[in-house]
Automatic annotation (TrEMBL):
Its cofactor is Mn(2+); Mg(2+). NCBIfam families: PRK00015.1-1, PRK00015.1-3. This is Ribonuclease HII. GO terms for molecular function: RNA-DNA hybrid ribonuclease activity. It comes from Paenibacillus brevis.
Amino acid sequence: MNDLLFHEREYWQQYRYIAGIDEVGRGCLFGDVVAAAVILPHRLVLEGVNDSKKLSEKKREKLYDIIMSKALAVGIGHADAETIDRINIKQATRLAMKQAVQQLSLAPDFLLIDAERIDVEIPQASLIKGDATSQSIAAASIVAKVTRDRLCKGEWDALYPEYGIGTHKGYATKFHREQIQALGPTPMHRKSFMTNLFVEEQTLF
């Protein structure tokens, strides 16, 4: 079994509060990229916590509640479509992650980040596939995913019901692309993601 506390244990020797950070929605055509930062107690083992993409929606929801009740602090950050179009998705992701760290009610001494760097004066480590190798990052990936999915199924779907956001969560499904072609993009669609969308589709045939 993968030891998800390997990195935490390494840094706990030197730091007290370690925040795991991850984002969701980087590849979507619609809506915010959402990041979460989670500080968990030392040596707490959360059964079933893993990369949110490997978990069912039901399992994520259950783990979300456990994480929110056990975590010492949780912060959420957002970067909207306008920001993504203006500064690009990579910079917007970093901005959302920075926001998530700033929203923590407890100041972290160290950051474990899923394959990114954040512009803050806090020591940090960027872990490739961090959501599959660190419990703190995996917990953040679950919190970010559930937070964004709830927006997709609730507020955002209610704003633009014709686009099926609650079902595909803003990703480039066939139905989603067809609705954008038929109705045009909404203010929450990422215009910078649209340029190649239909060119690619045409070259498939």
